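Sample entry was shown:

___
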Amino acid sequence: MGFRIAIPARYASERLPGKVLAPLAGRPLLAHVCDRARESGASEIWLTSDDERVLDAASALTGVRLFKSASEHRSGSDRVAELARAQAWPADNVVVNLQGDEPFMPGALVAQTGEALLDDPAADIATACCGIHDASEYANTNAVKVVRDDAGYALYFSRAAIPHERAGTGCVPAAGAWRHLGIYAYRVASLLRFADAAVHPLEQSESLEQLRALALGMRIRVVEAATLPGPGIDTSEDLEWARRLLERKS
């Protein structure tokens, strides 16, 4: 049994509306995301959106199934949960949530995350991380950190510098620090339970939805990424950077 990919693609982004349809090397941004999905070897690829413009553009993409979602979802995870429920996917199936603004998320990392959950029946969710070696990244609140136990499960995620370096030097602790990477694989039963739960105070405080899963007692397997992703597209500056990068490669 393999894993599916679901790509939530919202048109009404707050910081860069319409970004999933923005031209990137002559194609919509979401077409590049679907390329990464195909490279992962997933058994199925779904794109879910509440906007007909997005669904119309995606209809030209090979091997991508489409789903019209409701418009009131809080997050991409909720949009994927609606899809899983509508398709009646079995509870033990695995679905990877690949965000629609991640054209540089390697297919190999998508596969690594999905396979990590398939290989670990004790886990509810799988995600990825990479080592932090720079003090400025360690202190950056936009870089989400994760602390794992000895078995590789998440203990906590935070925008704060964790684990805390008590000596106050500002350096990365000798014990090491890990940056969380925004790719998730869910077991369907866990995804639906997560989506049905109320927003947790910790989640609200840190603006990190994975804290809801931890508060529910879910086990999150965190693997060290074998292939690092490029940045997602959140702003017009990100989009221009991506265009320059692909121009240099062409």
